Structure prediction request, 72 residues.
Amino acid sequence: MPGLGNVAELGPQHLAALPAEAQAMLAHTVSTALRPIYAIAAALAFAGLLFAFLLEELPLESRHTPRNPDHA
Prediction:
């Protein structure tokens, strides 16, 4: 992008000093880059929810219950 220089050194002060056109271009670029990340995360969360509902409920067989509940 024109006027940005070394992108690795950008901080809030550098971003505030950019021309309005460069700030708008940078904001658009960042939001465009993040959109697929959130879409993938939402799809993975939905797939996890579906798999959680499809899991078969199994009773615990290794649970130890006391034979005489009076001796606690």
